[in-house]
Amino acid sequence: MKDLITAHINEPPQLEKLYRSNKALFKRTFSSVYPELKGNSVADVWHERLSYDSDDIQWGTSQDLALLVGASLVAGLIAKLPAFAQLNEEFFYTRNIGFIIFPLLTAYFGWKNKVSTKTMALLAGAFVVAAIFINSLPNQPTSDTLTLSCVHLVLFSWSILGFSFVGNSNNSEKRLGYLKYNGDLVVMTTLIVISGGILSAITVGLFSLINLDIGKFYFENIGVFGLAAAPLVSTYLTQTNPQLVGKVSPVIAKIFSPLVLVMLVVYLGAIVYSGKDPYNNREFLMVFNALLIGVMALIFFSIAETSKTSHHRAQVWVLFLLSALTIVVNGVALSAILFRISEWGITPNRTAVLGGNLLILVNLLLVMIQLSKVLTKKTSLADVGKTIAIYLPIYSLWTIVVTFLFPFLFGFK
C-alpha cells in the first residue's frame, strides 16, 4: 500500500480507488508516508481529509448492510446447529467453535481485498478439510491430542483469516495491520458484548415484572445470534469507521504496557518470595504460560499500534524492558517443561508447549534485538513491526503440525 500511494500521489482517481478498497489500511499507511509527501498539493488535501474527525458514523451502502445482516444470520444458524440437528453440544462446540465466525470473516476480507478466486477457493478448501478432519477424530473427551487439535484449530482458522486480510499481497505492513485489526476487534467486540449484556438484562428484567420468564428462550435464541454476530458487526464498524477505535487502541497500548511491566516485576519477585515454582506444579506452569502468551500479545499489539504513530523514547524503553522480562519468564517456563519431560517423559501437552515456547522465545529475542537498535537509533520502530510480521507464518505452520499431525504422532492419546 505504501508504494502504491507514493506511486499514485498525483493521480487522485487512483488514490480514491485505493482508499475505498481498504479505508483503515489506507489511512494508517498514508499517515506514515505523509511526512515524505508534505508540500505536495494532493497529499496535503488528503492529509486534511483523513485528519478530519467526523462525528458521523458511516454505515456503508445498503448492499454492505444487507451482506452484514445475512452473514450475522448465517453465523447464528451455525451456532444453533446442535439444536436444529439434535447434535451433542459439547461435541459440536469444542470442535467447531472457530467455524462459526472465521469462515465468514475470511469471506468478508476476501471480498473487500479483491482476493483472487483461486486463493479464496484454497482458503475455503482449507476450512472444509479442517472441518472434516476435526469432526472425524475419535470421540475421546480425555484425549490430550483431541484437546490440542481443537485449541490449535482455532489458531489455524485465525491464520486463514490472516491470509484473507493480507489479500493478494504478502508484505509485512499488511501483516502488522492484521495484528492491529485484532486489537481493534477485541476493543469493539467487548463494547458491543457489554452493551448487549446490559440490554439483555434489562429486557429479561422488564418481562419478569409482568410475570413472563423469557430468560431461557432469550439466551438460547436471541443471545446466541447476538454473540455470533458481535465479531462480524465489530469488524464491519472498525473497517468502515477507523476513527471509532483508532485513538482508543493506542491509548490502551500506552497505558497497559508500563502497568504490565510493573506487574511482571512484582510477580517475579513474589514467586521467589512465595517459594512457588512451575517445576512440580502443573497448574502453576499452565498459568505461567498463559501469562507469557498474554504479555507477548500485548507487546506485539503495542508495537503494531506505536509503529504507525509518533512515539517517545520512554515507550520504546518500556517495550524493550517488557520484552526482556518476558524472555526471562519464557526461560523459566522452558526450563520447567524440559524438567518435566526429563522426569516424566514426553506427552502431547508437553511437546506442544515446548514447541510453542521455543517459537515465542526466538521471536521475542528478535524483537528485543530490534528494539535495542531503535534505542541506539540504528533502526526505526517500523522495522520492529516487520520483524514481528515476517515471523507470523511460522506460528501458522506450528498450528498445522499440532492440529493435524499430533493425533497421529501420539496415537490419539
Automatic annotation (TrEMBL):
Keywords assigned: Membrane, Transmembrane, Transmembrane helix
Ranges annotated as spanning the membrane: 65-85, 92-111, 117-134, 146-166, 186-210, 217-239, 251-272, 284-304, 316-339, 351-369, 389-412
Protein name in the entry: Fumarate reductase subunit C
Originating organism: Runella defluvii
Taxonomic lineage from the root: Bacteria, Pseudomonadati, Bacteroidota, Cytophagia, Cytophagales
